[in-house]
């Protein structure tokens, strides 16, 4: 089932998410719905807070990036078919050189900005069967994971921009939170209370 994606301004996007265990209600259905929602919106990642759940769960499918002709064949192969569920993830280490890449977010439609992140991460997590892993990723794969990981930490990519960029985006972000935007996928906009 395709779920509405929570828009910028909703408090759930600012919460540090909670760990879950294998007894989480309707877990398999939730993961299936997250994949459906992400693919419907042409995303490469989706975190549970983006569908209104403050839990440490996100999904990633980096296959669309594998078509980038600027990447080496090795980089393309690493991205192709990479489809994973991350539960209770914890980034253990971020290393390497910081590099900028133009990022966007399904919760912040039509806003794209260059964001600097470290090249390599080591992350511990559990898969959809609650089997534990500790793995190292680099390049675009690390970046996609870092972006989704930020969501379960209550961080948005716009938080990483300069104060000037944030000021320039303020009006557009306010419009998104008020639903004054056209999108091709279902969204849920926060309730805007009028000042008295």
From TrEMBL:
InterPro entries: Peptide_deformylase, Peptide_deformylase_sf. Keywords: Hydrolase, Iron, Metal-binding, Protein biosynthesis. SUPFAM superfamilies: Peptide deformylase. Fe cation binds at residues 105, 147, 151. Its EC number is 3.5.1.88. Pfam families: Pep_deformylase. Transmembrane segments: none annotated. Its cofactor is Fe(2+). GO terms for biological process: translation. GO terms for molecular function: metal ion binding; peptide deformylase activity. Binds 1 Fe(2+) ion. The active site is at residue 148. It comes from the Bacteria. It catalyses: N-terminal N-formyl-L-methionyl-[peptide] + H2O = N-terminal L-methionyl-[peptide] + formate. It is an enzyme of class 3 (hydrolase). Belongs to the polypeptide deformylase family. Removes the formyl group from the N-terminal Met of newly synthesized proteins. Requires at least a dipeptide for an efficient rate of reaction. N-terminal L-methionine is a prerequisite for activity but the enzyme has broad specificity at other positions. HAMAP family: Pep_deformylase. This is Peptide deformylase. It comes from Arenibacter palladensis.
């Amino acid at each position: 089932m395709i779920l509405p994606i929570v828009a910028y301004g909703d408090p759930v996007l600012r919460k540090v998410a909670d760990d879950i265990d294998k007894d989480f209600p309707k877990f398999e259905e939730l993961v299936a719905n997250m994949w459906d929602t992400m693919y419907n919106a042409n995303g490469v990642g989706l975190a549970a807070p983006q569908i209104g759940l403050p839990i440490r769960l996100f999904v990633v499918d980096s296959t669309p990036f594998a078509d980038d002709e600027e990447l080496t064949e090795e980089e393309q192969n690493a991205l192709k078919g990479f489809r994973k569920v991350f539960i209770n993830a914890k980034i253990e280490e971020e290393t390497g050189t910081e590099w900028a890449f133009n990022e966007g977010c399904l919760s912040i439609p039509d806003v794209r900005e260059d964001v600097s992140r470290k090249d390599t991460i080591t992350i511990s997590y559990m898969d959809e069967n609650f089997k534990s892993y500790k793995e190292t990723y680099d390049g675009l794969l690390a970046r996609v994971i870092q972006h989704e990981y930020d969501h379960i930490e209550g961080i948005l990519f716009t938080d990483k921009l300069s104060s000037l960029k944030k000021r320039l985006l303020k009006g557009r972000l306010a419009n998104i939170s008020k639903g004054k935007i056209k999108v091709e996928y279902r969204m849920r906009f926060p309730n805007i209370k009028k000042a008295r």
